[in-house]
Amino acid sequence: MDRLIVLTIFASIVGCNAGELPLAEPMPQVVMITEAVDEGRSCYRVDSPTATYFFDKAGGGFTSILDPDGTDWIGYRRGGGSAGEYRGIPNTGQLHPGYDNAVTTTATALGEPVPEVTIETSRAGFGATWVFRPSYAEMTLHTVPAGQTYWLLYEGTPGGAVDKGDRLVLSNGRDYSANEDHPWGRRRKRPDLFTDIAGDSTLAPGSEWGYIAASESDRSLFFAHTDDEHEDDYWQMNDEMTVFGFGRTSSTKKLMTMPGNRLVIGLAASRERSVVGSTIHRAWTAAPARSQRERRTSRAPASQEERQIAPVVAYDFSAGHGAVIRDRARRKGLDLVITDTNAVTWITHGIRIEKPTLISSIEPASQLTSRIAAQHAITVEAWVRPANANQFGPARIVSLARDPYERNATLGQEKGGYSQRLRTTRTDKNGTRPSVATRSGVDPRRPTHVVYTRDADGTACLYVNGKLLASAQVPGDLSNWDASYRLGLANELTGDRPWLGELYAVAIYAHALRAATVRAKHRAGHHRTPRPASPKRTP
Fold first, then answer.
1. What pLDDT is attached to residue 14?
2. Which residue, of 82, 89, 179, 519, has the greatest Cβ tally within 10 A?
3. What is the second-level CATH architecture of the domain 301-528?
């Protein structure tokens, strides 16, 4: 097997022998992709200053990751179970070295030093983009088949071998050593169910991370993953390989379903938390990996992007009195009327619904419906504070519908979580089968930012406070939307699905907002959503 040490490769790039490298000169910050064979598998080989990666084209995963000393931190080989064929990254269940029928391509020129290398891979409906940069590699799992689950795993040999002297350091502050009662200690053959690794809001915002410091090396292998509420798992299998998994509750159960998850991996030249943490910070806060389709879309002019992000209707509840809620998205907008003003109280920056009532348009929301149906895409955004976590039905927060059984779209609360129903040509008239729902997120103690997006390709996402908590493929298009439906808040139009709580802002878009835009809107807060239109002139 042809495995050159990275130091030698990059010495040749700058034109000197490995033993003659000028110590004052930094290693060139480039990467390079070539064709290679590793353990009998046809691979892309990516060389960087910190690691050499071997990516199995037919399997869609890594067979090897070599450090600058040539030590393999994965150790995949045919057969052998945990001593060989089980090993790899990301090992989702479908993307795994040693498997067949994956389609893997690169648009990067072979054999040329470049700032970054991109690989696209897909298998059995799962699609991922890998971007390799000088100090790390990053995957975005952009496609997940509807109804299928997955996990993201590292299965391999830290520092070249499994050793009880290895350490596991996590973003929740835990630092496991071999002397503790956990799988690397005397219970080392049993899974350690962490529940969910706590995310990190400072070092790597929006992530949960960890790293393994190998006992026989001065290096660490690090992982950072999109923060979620799923359980994560770590153990050593048969004293032959380490298993570290995001979204894994046992040896057989996969927990994740949503597309869009990021996974950042790499080797750091240290075992210390401060140094490795700094490396994770730089990797995680860099621009995320994007698919070729996303890169083509991102070339649209800024003015077009701004038009796409502008809401079709928007309400900020800033009047402070009266029965009319003005549409702030445009001058002659879709204003709403409070059916029973005695059921509500105007508060600072919002309105509190204390008893069942309905806030709705008088006329059909025909322009809103036609704009969304033409694009086959939608975003429903709301800043809310539910009265309690017991409301169900789901209790309607925002509803564009005829009655409880026929609708175009509805955002609601179902006890401790939020749900979204969307009618398409492939769902029923109620917008279910499938719908999208979170298992958590309702917090009566403070304002909450809830955003539902569904793009023209059918990918539906539900965010709570900037975090993606649920996702699904909702197939079909919106050509069957009914333009006769009115828009209602805090109830169904028939008055029998009431929601109680505080509303601070509601906006609906004929466009699926990107995850980065959703996070930015959450950070901006509800006082800035949306911007009021110019006041109407009176004669």
1. 37
2. 89
3. Sandwich (2.60)
CA 400 distance to own-chain centroid: 27
Q: Do β-strands 220-226 and 103-106 pair in parallel, antiparallel, or remain unpaired?
A: unpaired
The C-alpha atoms of residue 404 and residue 426 are separated, in whole angstroms, by 19
Contact criterion met (CB below 8 Å) for 118 and 107: yes
Nearest to 123, CA basis, from 156, 101, 155:
101
Higher pLDDT, 401 or 174: 401
Pairing assessment for the beta strands 501-509 and 378-386 based on DSSP bridges? antiparallel
**Which DSSP string corresponds to 74-111?**
S---SS-GGGTTT-BB---SSS-TT----EEEE-SPTT
Q: Is 40 exposed, middle or buried (0-12, 13-18, 19+ CB in 10 A)?
A: exposed
Per residue in 246-274, pLDDT (tens digit) is 988 765 788 898 888 899 999 999 999 98
Q: Is the domain 6-295 a CATH 2.60.40 member? A: no
How far is it, in rounded angstroms, from Cα 228 to Cα 197?
9
CA atoms of 172 and 195, how far apart (whole Å):
12
26 Cβ contact partners less than 8 Å away, ≥ 6 residues apart: none
Burial category of 5 from C-beta neighbours within 10 Å (exposed 0-12, middle 13-18, buried 19 and up): middle
Instruction: Sketch the domain layout of the chain as residue ranges.
Output: 6-295, 301-528
- Measured distance CA(87)–CA(157) in Å, rounded: 8
Tell me the pTM: 0.56
C-alpha 88 chain-centroid distance: 22
Q: Mention every residue, 6+ apart, whose C-beta is less than 8 A from residue 213.
A: 158, 166, 167, 168, 169, 219, 220, 271, 276
Q: Give the pLDDT confidence score for residue 157 in this predicted structure.
A: 95
CA 222 to CA 154: how far, in whole Å?
10
